Amino acid sequence: MPTLDAIVCAASNAGTSDVLIAPNVPIRFRIDGALSDATDEILTPEDTAALAHEACGREFDKLMQGIEIDLAETFSNGVRCRINAYLSMGRCCMAIRLLASSIPDLNKLGVPPVVHEFQNYQRGIVIVTGETGSGKSTTLAAIIDRINHTRHDHIVTLEDPVEYVYEPDLCSIDQREIGRDTASFAEGLRAVLRQDPDVILVGEMRDFSTIETALTAAETGHLVFGTLHTQSAPDSIDRLVDVFPEERQQQVRMQLSMTLKAVVSQQLIPKRMGGRVLAAEVMIVNPAIKNLIREGKTPQIANSLATSADLGSITMDAALMKLARSRTISAAAAIAAAHDPDQMRKAVR
Description:
This protein is α/β, with parallel strands linked by helices. The chain has 13 helices and 13 strands. It has helices at residues 4-13, 45-56, 60-64, 136-150, 185-192, 208-219, 233-242, 249-259, 287-294, 301-306, 316-325, 331-337, 341-348, and strands at 18-21, 28-31, 34-37, 69-74, 80-88, 91-98, 124-130, 154-159, 172-177, 199-202, 223-228, 260-270, 276-284. The strands form 2 sheets. A 7-stranded mixed sheet has the order 9-8-10-11-7-12-13, sandwiched between helices. It has a 6-stranded antiparallel sheet with strand order 3-2-1-6-5-4.
C-alpha cells in the first residue's frame, strides 16, 4: 500500500482535483470531474485506517469516535491539500482535495469582467455560490489576493480549513482556521469585529449566527466575502433569509437589500477538448433587485438579471450559451447544466 504522500504525488502528476479513499475499492482520482481507478489494488479496512491515521495523527482517536476531521496539509512535492476524514459503516474513509500550489490570477479563471471590479468595493457583502468543487474558494482567493496587492487594508479570513496561504503585500492578513484558531465561524466572526478588519472572508455562511454577524459587519462599513451552496444567484437570497425565524425575515430582507453588492454562482463544465471551463452567473444588485429583495419577490430576480446586462449581470443560461456558441463546450453539456434545458436546447440547436 502506498503512503499518503505517494498517493498525493501521483494524483498531482495525473492532474487530479480530488482523491477518494475507502475500503474494498481502489484509490480513485477525480480528473476533469470524472472518477477513475488510480490502481488495481483494492484497499482493505486496515489500509484505509492506516492512511487515515497518517493524515490525522493525534486527531485519529476523535475520528474513531465518529467525529469527522477536517485538516489541511502540505506534502513533499509542495502540493497543499484539504482533507476530510470520516467513518462509513465504522470504517475509515477520506476525501482529499488538491489545491493549486499558488493563488491563480483572476485573469486566468475565466470569470465575467464585472468580477474584476469586486476588489474595488469598500463595504457590503459579496457571495460566491455553487456546488462542492465548483471553484468557489479559488475565485474568492483570487479576489482577496488582488486586494492584497492593490490596497492598504487589514484582511481577516475564517476558513475550515485554511486552503490558500496568502503572502502579505500591501495588506495585513490574518488567516484563522476553525477548530484551531477559533471555535466556530460564528464565534470567530464576532471576534473579528474587534480586530480592526477592513475585509473579511467567511469560508461558509452556514448558520443563523454567522449570517447575522456578517450582515452586521457589512452594515458597519466592512467588506464581507462569503460562500453558500446554492444553484443560482436568486436562490442565495432565499437561503440567507430562510435561516432566520419567520418574525425576523422581513428585517433580514431589508438588511440584505442595503448590504448585498453581488452574487456569483459557478459551475465547472466539461470542455470539448478535455478539461473544464468556468460558467458563471453574476447578479449585480441594482435598485430594481433591491426592491425585489425587500418585497420577497425573489422569483422575479431572474428576469431582472436578464435586463441588467449593462451593469455586468449575466444569467447562467446566457453564460452557457456563450460557451456553447464559441464551441468551448458541447451543446449537450450546455443543456445538462442549464436552468431551463428546453430553452437551451432551442438556443443551441
